[in-house]
Amino acid sequence: MNTRALGAILAVLCLFFAACGSDPEATVTGDVNDSVTDEMTEEPVEEEAVQEEPVEEEAVEIRIVSLSPTATEMLFAVGAGDLVAAVDEFSYYPDQAPVTDLSGYEPNVEAIAGYEPTLVVSSAEIEGLDAVGIENLVLPAAVTLDDVYAQIEQVGEATGHVADAAELVAEMQVDVDAVLASLPELEEPLTYYHELDNTLYSVTSNTFVGEIYAMLGLVNAADAADPDGEFFGYPQLSEEFLLASDPDVIFLADTLCCDQSAETVAARPGWEQLTAVASGNIVELNDDVVSRWGPRVVDFIEAAGAAVVDISLVAAG
């Protein structure tokens, strides 16, 4: 398995495993009666109020290191890309992301500190950052779409892009709703197989990816391979299992890592018997889009939703 394949698998597995200060109090100086009495005139004389000059706090420049490909996509999507000083080795989207050899799986605090960040964004807490005075924003693997929206808003708040994050979330919600509204009502739900790599690793419905497919009304053929969660929702299937389950649709999430395509799948010995292959219902996906729970999850939903619509149209004749 090549480096990109390994990175993709680790990223998908991580889907499962996975400047505040008090407002200064106003001070009031002078007599509590707000006046003094002139002994000669016995007329109240107002005491001149003494006001302290407001102290302007010096703004702290935000400098970010991202050790999560998903976080990197969120940062750039909300308009905070100019604050990003460095990203990990797998954060190669978008193109302008400053990729380094930093590891998100085995973070090195000394190496991270070398980029002088004020904030590190990661998918798991990094020990030792507090000791060197670096804040750590942790965005764990999302379980639902609402988790994705919440994390985007967190990124917006942490970077001063609250309005941009809110706008992005609203756009995503509109796009997702449009996909759901386009789905046909089927007499029988379609079954599917989601391929992580060409050694037949897959996902069950107890994963973020599986949650997306369930939202589209699809039934996961791999659920039977991990009924008790022994494989944490990522079982390795056998060809015999797939031939027996005979899914209606095959989604390929190994087009980049493993050079898989509809053609290579159709050429696998015995796979011509599968309904998905015989019907041409093989959907090629972008590995990175599917393995991350960032803004591009909408692209994943749109691709899967379009496949459902196309298959239903063909079935209807």
Helical segment tally?
Answer: 11
Inertia-based shape: elongated
N-to-C SSE string, H for helix and E for strand: HEEEHEHEEHHEHEHEHHEHH
Rg estimate, integer Å? 27 Å
The fraction of residues assigned to DSSP E strands is: 5-15%
Number of E-state strands: 10
What separation lies between the terminal Cα atoms? Answer: 41 Å
Structural class: alpha/beta
CATH superfamily of the largest domain: Nitrogenase molybdenum iron protein domain
The CATH topology of the largest domain is given as Rossmann fold
* Chain-averaged pLDDT: 87
Itemize the secondary structure elements and their pairings:
Elements: H1 3-13, E1 36-37, E2 44-45, E3 64-66, H2 69-77, E4 84-87, H3 109-113, E5 119-122, E6 135-138, H4 145-159, H5 162-182, E7 191-195, H6 208-215, E8 219-220, H7 239-245, E9 249-252, H8 262-266, H9 275-278, E10 282-284, H10 287-291, H11 297-316
Parallel strand pairs: 3-4, 3-5, 5-6, 7-8, 7-9, 9-10
Antiparallel strand pairs: 1-2
